[in-house]
Amino acid sequence: MSPLVDYHVHLDLYKDHERVAQRCAAQNIEVFAVTTTPVAWQRNCDVVKGCSGIRIGLGIHPQLAAEREADIELFEKLVDHTHFIGEVGLDAGPRHFRTLEAQKRVFQRVLKAAARSGPKVVSLHSVRTSRQILDTIEQYYSHADLRFVMHWFSGSKAEAERAVKAGCYFSVNSSMLDSPNGARLAAGLPTDRILTETDGPFTQGMDGKPTEPGDVQPALRSLARLRTVPENTLRIQIAENLFRLEDGLI
């Protein structure tokens, strides 16, 4: 059977992250575990050593970029050692728009370093900044071997169409599908650009507990229902999308 895919999760933020990582391997789940600071990258790599199917992203989360701006130098030193970048991007939400200029400085250096070092998969955070991020991709990185994944995309339909034209993929979780706008966007995405994610432990399952990668199945089920395709057909398609996205990297 094709694997499940959780293409955006914060493994190191679970109290029992080692056991969560082991369960991913046991349950045949392909995982992109993002980090929020470059300091966490090596520690995460050590935790998942011996667990198949888990990629560790080198990241600087935009919500931390202002206070951790100096960490970009460590990011630039480590970038040659991984094909996976995330979580990175911009956040102009109510709590973080005041730091947007610092976020932009960090994000520009992240993309420059990744483009020099490529090929890379890049998991993008784009809260209220989809247009700015797409402007940057289109203007400066259209010819770089950077393979962008829009995590929990919340932009407009027009911005989603721009992202598709720019070659982006989209990782979709249950919380995104619970919102009318998110469901409309997910229904209209090209089938060959869709991945699933949990964004655990920041999302909750039906039981009210933080989601783990094994909880990605409800997102798959909801997507299949939304797009009126059999669940297993979509599961196979998402696995194929993953392998195409990562072609030549693993």
TrEMBL record:
Keywords: Hydrolase, Metal-binding. GO terms for molecular function: hydrolase activity, acting on ester bonds; metal ion binding. The keyword Metal-binding applies. A divalent metal cation 2 binds at residues 125, 151. It holds the Pfam family TatD_DNase. The keyword DNA repair does not apply. Signal peptide: none annotated. A divalent metal cation 1 binds at residues 8, 10, 87, 199. Gene3D superfamilies: Metal-dependent hydrolases. CDD domains: TatD_DNAse (cd01310). This is TatD family hydrolase. It comes from Brevifollis gellanilyticus.
